[in-house]
Specification:
mainly alpha; Peroxidase, domain 1; 12 helices; 3 strands; 3% strand; globular
Length: 200
Amino acid sequence: MNPNTAPDWSELAGIARDWWRQLRPGPSRKGDRAALARLRRAATTGEALMEPETIDLCRKLGVSARTRAPTPGRVAALAAVLAHVTQEVDPPIIGGGGRPGMMRLVGPQSTDKTVREAAKLKETRFRALMSARADDELLTSMRRLVALTGGKANLRDLARTMLSWSEKTRTRWAFEYYGAMAPSSENATSSPPIATEGVP
């Protein structure tokens, strides 16, 4: 990755998704259960960075100690979170419009108070997620998010959002949490459709 050029977040998300698929055991691949278990136990990005699989992901993403974004710490947080994902899903669009993402799985998809109270991701936890800034905070919040879905994740959306975590991505997730269309500049970065893959 050229440190002087803006990252292509969608491309990097696709690379992270492929990395996850290589580690997950499946019908046509052995995977690496031991590596995933170690990453799941990582409590901090520092611990995750000690795993060779995290360094492999950094290499594939073109990340080094000299790159500005994403940083090795951010990639380590992503690796530790992806290790908790057991099923890739592409949530259906309800009512049309926009590409769905992680917030489709946990958000109320409405501003109605009754509906909001029944959401998997309560507003207090959502605000805590939105307030995450440090990589370790992001790791903890995103890991809780994946736990709420039972290990399901839209991998492209999760990876792209974590790698590019910023005011822009937080705004997009705020709109999607309540089922609203994000501003057009946000929609332009949405990921293309992906095939759904479940892992027992």
